[in-house]
Amino acid sequence: MKIRTEVKIGLIAVITLATFAWTYNYMKGLNVLKQFHNFNVFYDDIGGLKESNPVTLNGFKVGLVNTIDLADDNSGRIAVSIVLEKSFDLPKNSVAEIYSADLLGSKAIRFKLGDSPILAESGDTLKGEVEASLSDLISPVKAKADKIMDSIDSVLIVVLESLNDNFSDDFKSTVQHLQNSAQALDAFLNEENGQFPAITSNIEDITLSLKNNTKKFDTVMDNMESMSDSLAQSQFKSMINNMNTSLLSLHELLEGINEGKGTIGALATNDTLYQNLESLSHNLDLLLMDMKENPKKYVHFSVWGGGKSEKKKDKTK
Fold first, then answer.
1. Which DSSP letter does residue 297 get?
2. Distance from C-alpha of 126 to C-alpha of 40, rounded to nearest angstrom
3. Which pLDDT tens digit goes with each residue over 6-54?
4. Ramachandran assignment for 58, one of left (phi > 0), alpha (psi -120 to 50 degrees), beta (any other)
5. What is the rounded distance in angstroms from the CA atom of residue 98 to the CA atom of residue 126?
């Protein structure tokens, strides 16, 4: 069976087109023999993203940018088609973020996985974001730097205006004073018969004396150590304990007196006993005064004993 020339030409054209498509996709980084997952993302600005730029997850390449075109809704947004070669669970609320892949400004897309339990399917539309570029980050710093430079310029202008003739004269005068002070200090230090050599000599004598009396200092320290050892070995601790016991007893005695315990406590706290003693003392004073004034009232005496015979006579009658 002969194949017609038209069929041969058609087969060659199909094979050529298939080879071209495979080569084109291979040059883009796609292997047409694998199964792909397509996702769509819309951006307001892609910042220089190009087709065939890589798509990564945690730094690992999982796909590439397939096509870039304007959105059909005439909103001015950019529609980006992503092709994933690797199959993995992609939550539906994941974000496709455009970022700078290197210092030269090459762009790429990376996935920021969401936490939704619903997984995205091939053909779904994902949320897109754009990482802040280096220029966006530098712009606020540049603005602050400009303000700082303006402030520095203002300060320099004020300084330059203050550097007039009077300031120059004052500065020269200050330098001259510093020079005179340095010369005076140099003369004080280098004077042979001045105070500084005498002070230095005295310090040397004191140092030498301390060095010569080192053994004596050692002896004094040994004696102090021996004395401290003796105090530690003596009955000093026992004496302190006895003193503490005595003070405790005295404290208990004073507490008993304050509480009215015992005779002393009764005298200290009971007003009735004090008043009775005061009344008794007053009565004794009155008795003594009456005895001094009327002694015959209390004492009877007779030189011959007549008093007794008279009393007997009276009794017989």
1. G
2. 6
3. 766 777 777 787 776 666 555 655 555 456 788 999 999 888 888 889 9
4. left
5. 13
Rounded Cα distance between 223 and 217, Å, is 10
**What is the full DSSP assignment across 2-66?**
PPPHHHHHHHHHHHHHHHHHHHHHHHHT--TTS--EEEEEEES--TT--TT-EEEETTEEEEEEE
94: helix, strand or coil: coil
The residue among 127, 131, 115 whose CA lies nearest residue 40 is: 127
For residue 135, give the H/E element and its range. helix 134-162
CB of 116 within 8 A of CB of 92? Answer: yes
Nearest-angstrom CA–CA distance, 65 and 38? 10
Structure tokens at 314: 């009276």
Tokens of 315: 């009794």
* Total-model pTM: 0.38
Measured CA to CA, the distance from residue 57 to residue 113 in angstroms comes to 9
Instruction: Report residue 103: phi and psi, to 5°.
Output: -70, -20
Integer angstrom CA distances of residue 36 from 73, 96, 225: 26, 17, 93
Tell me the three state secondary structure of residue 294: coil
Distance, in Å, from the CA atom of 192 to the CA atom of 289, rounded to the nearest integer, reads 99
Q: What is the pLDDT of residues 91-131, one digit of tens each?
A: 999 999 999 888 777 899 999 999 999 998 888 999 999 88
CA-to-CA separations, 156 to 87, 153, 162, 165, in angstroms, rounded = 64, 5, 10, 17
